[in-house]
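TOKENISE THE FOLD
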Amino acid sequence: MKTKNAKLLIILFSGMMFFYACEKNDKDDQPQLNGEYVLCTTASFISPTGYVQKVGSLDTITAISNDNALEYMTSGMYSYDSMFFSCNYIDNYIVRLKINDAGRIEEDVKIDVGGKTGKIWFKDSHTAFTYENSTFKIVIFDPTEMILKGQIDLSMLKRGDIPFMELYDIIERDGKLFVPLNLALRWHSTAIDSVYIAVADVASQQFEKIIKSGMSQTAGGALHSRNAMAIDENNDIYFTAHLSSGTGGSHKPSGLMRIKSGTTDFDDTYFWNLTEATNNHRADAFYYIGNGKAFLTVGYPELLNPNNNMSPLLDPVYKWWFIDLKAKSAIELDLPVTKGFNTSWTIVYNNNFLLPIANNEETAIYEYSLTQGKQIRKITTNGEPISFIKLNIKK
């Protein structure tokens, strides 16, 4: 279903906004937090550098320059409470950053994980999980003390008949780690025939098994700047399955899949064909926001440059969509086309949602109101906004 009718959006999303209001009331007795934000921008996906800076309230600003930013090479940012971290594909380090007394960002401490760093999943302030794609290991570390706590070897999963393997994401639930694999003939080419997810046990620090489904191809978000897995209120894991580039090139559909609470296998009763739901396009990144609702970045094969193999990575060939997992409804949002492969995140702000946009005409953060069904504000940025994270700092 595709529409730009604001009245229809109000009907669909009013229940969701009630959910957020209830959630806020339930948390009124918790410690009050003073939010600060960290923005990371870059000139392009292949740029050798980026800019990281602290950002205060967005309510009164219309543009963010790089005047107060730290020039810093990072592929993406992660936060847990007041701590925030940088990872980069070209080195082996997880770097914890800090805001100094002058309000500028600087390095605090870093640890070497032994290979090219992957995405981070936080269990608590003393346990976090990442992976490295040099020797294919899951790495367990303490984000507060910044020390390594263990590792799980996945190198035995490399197949002789498949020249390219990459660990593509990570999520932990009930002591089990789920790590999607990207298996392909070459980097970011069409993935092979199925979805593969490695399952490992945290307590024993051992690989357990691979689960496989032929319903789609490749799960996980890959880049630090996008997400594709989430745990809902029922403790079920949902994830999008797609090509690694998120656009074209396969006869199999992109889809939403599930691993139910208490299991370590695919739920064979649930597969939502997102290619069909998005009018024959390919859903890629997946941002769960609660109560069965999520945002998607959706790739449009018709926008690809046929003469450039890097077009899915470098060109604005994506659009933002909004989905209801329970009703299985999907709506294209009235927002500009974007370079969604590496500029795709979502954050709640003033009961609305911030969404990044990067194309050949602009780089910006849009504030989108679901209740009104439209963009209500735009903040321009100096560079593609690849990460925007909130720090929760106790007063």
